[in-house]
Design a protein that fits this description.
The protein has 228 residues and is α/β, with parallel strands linked by helices. The protein contains six helices and nine strands; from the N terminus they run βαββαββαββαβαβα.
Length: 228
């Protein structure tokens, strides 16, 4: 475990969530890391004490821009875009690193995760399945040489677009069938709805229909961009 892993954290406010994310990062069994926090124009002070990290501040441009800024500054052989609302298991990085080392033909590794109390069990990498379902979370370990820039025009489905774009360059992933992290509610996935909410008649309910319409519009953008 000698390779440097660059951990890029885009954050807009959410200082408490960021502190919990950092606690889990600096408790990792994999120690050769650099942490780059991109403050995307937060209105609250995000000064973090007690941890060795690089804090870069920019005007508010959104998470894709912040991730790209971090990627430009990364020095590691591997990179992971670690959302500020993500809490990793202590051996998360070690297991992801070992998976890439054991599979030199793949470019990235991803795992199951929890969103609050909801479990997201993923599946083996399959480009056809990925074209139909957004199942890879942005918090995945990627070989730096294979990492690409994020589309800064997208407001939603950024992770889906990213891994579709990688796969269209013949980059493949490997799945760890373990729950290696959890996402705290109230952050990037706070608008998540259960699957039944997108079906009739539930999708037409007044308190659901607006969110479902926005979801379907944004999904159509991805379908158009990737000719799905």
């Amino acid at each position: 475990m000698n390779d440097l892993i660059s951990i890029i954290i885009p954050v807009y406010n959410h200082k408490k969530a960021l502190e919990r994310a950092l606690d889990s990062i600096f408790s990792q069994t994999y120690k050769n890391i650099e942490v780059i926090v991109i403050d995307d124009g937060s209105s609250e002070e995000l000064r973090i004490k007690n941890y060795e990290l690089r804090m870069v501040r920019q005007e508010n441009r959104g998470a894709p821009s912040a991730r790209n800024r971090g990627l430009d500054q990364a020095k590691g052989e591997y990179v992971i875009f670690w959302d500020a609302d993500v809490i990793g298991e202590p051996d998360m990085l070690e297991k992801m690193y070992d998976a890439l080392e054991s599979n030199p033909e793949v470019s990235f590794v991803y795992s199951n995760f929890y969103f609050g109390y909801k479990s997201f069990k993923l599946q083996h990498f399959n480009i056809t399945a990925l074209q139909h379902d957004n199942y890879i979370h942005s918090t995945s370990l990627i070989r730096y040489k294979d990492a690409i820039k994020w589309d800064e025009l997208l407001k939603r489905f950024q992770d889906w677009d990213y891994f579709l774009s990688l796969s269209e360059q013949d980059k493949k992933g490997v799945w760890i069938d373990e729950y290696l992290f959890k996402v705290l509610p109230g952050g990037t996935m706070s608008s998540w709805l259960p699957k039944f909410a997108y079906k009739k008649p539930w999708k037409y309910l007044p308190w659901v229909s607006g969110r479902v319409r926005k979801y379907e519009d944004d999904r159509a953008v991805i379908f158009l961009k990737h000719s799905l």
